[in-house]
Amino acid sequence: MTSRLRLSAAHWPVIVPPLAALVLALTWGRSLSAGAVALVSCCLAGAVLSAVHHAEVIAHRVGEPFGSLVLAIAVTIIEVALIVTLMADGGEKSSTLARDTVFAAVMITCNGIVGLSLLVGALRRRVAVFNAEGTGAAFATVATLAGLSLALPTFTTSTPGPRFSTAQLVFAALAALLLYGLFVATQTIRHRDYFLPVTTAGEVIDGDDHAHPPSTRTALISLGLLAVALISVVGLAKGVSPAIESGVAAAGLPASVVGVVIALLVLLPETIAAVRAARRDRVQTSLNLGLGSAMASIGLTIPAVAVATIWLEGPLVLGLGATHMVLLALTVAVGTLTVIPGRATPLQGGVHLSLLAAYIVLALSP
């Protein structure tokens, strides 16, 4: 029996996606009891973890920086699916859900993942070393996307409230998509070496020596299971969305906490992957994961939500409030000072983590 348990534990990423798909088929379109919600939530968490696992397998096969890109896109697809499914059932009360989730993802990635990676890398080698050219380009893109999509709507006057007009929303969506596509081309084609890990002496590490890459057959199997897991995540999230919203309301928490929950759910496995990379002295890979996810979160979510507004009811509020605007400005300023030297001590990691802590506290108690 012990050997069977070990075998099941080793093959859980293969078992979970079909199991989640089966649970989705059995619960689709039905009103769920408390026990069913707990079961669906477990399957949802397992599907998210298995999706990221298979994305990592594919990422290991294609190598850096393509690997970080695959993982970031997979995570963002999950995020977009959760946002759209919750907005479809939420009506006007979910008008700020996309803004809250995207901003939560930006704060978690740019301060949480980046800060934790720098802290782990610096504690291990005294100084965390990364490529300032690639990281600076990524952070500049994130800052521009966040400014255009989240800060600018607060100051426009064509539509009442912190909202874009239709023409402005189309521009923001196209700009986000084009900037993200331009960054991907820069990262994978023209300046790939800017996004590869570097040693403490500044030498580029082109390759990963901790394990042999999986075979093509294994990567293709993971690709299929990744698709099944993502479909399961979308469906299961739709099933438990009423429980998430009612739970937040029952606890007396602001509605924006729903966006924080979504971002934490989809980014936790990626955080683990970034910390693992930092422990292997691959801080650049960790930063690729964090900043790549922030960029994909804005660059793919905003266009997807803009298209979804064609059939979704209620307004789409994207503009940040004053408190979040201050946190975004601090994140951009601190992140710029962190990136410029190409080296970081534990202090920089602690500063970023303190900004994340401030965001979470203000989200729970605005």
UniProtKB/TrEMBL annotation:
Ranges for domain Sodium/calcium exchanger membrane region: 35-188, 222-363
Query: What is the top-level taxon of the source organism?
Result: Bacteria
Write down the InterPro entries for this protein, in alphabetical order: Alkaline_pH_Ca-Antiporter, NaCa_Exmemb
Q: Where in the cell is it found?
A: Membrane
Regarding the membrane, this protein is recorded as: Multi-pass membrane protein
Any Pfam family from its record, for instance, is: Na_Ca_ex
| Positions of transmembrane segments | 12-29, 35-54, 66-87, 102-123, 135-155, 167-185, 219-237, 249-268, 289-312, 318-340, 347-365
| Record keyword Transmembrane helix present | yes
List keywords of the entry alphabetically: Membrane, Transmembrane, Transmembrane helix
What is the recorded name of this protein?
Answer: Ionic transporter y4hA
Species name: Streptomyces blastmyceticus
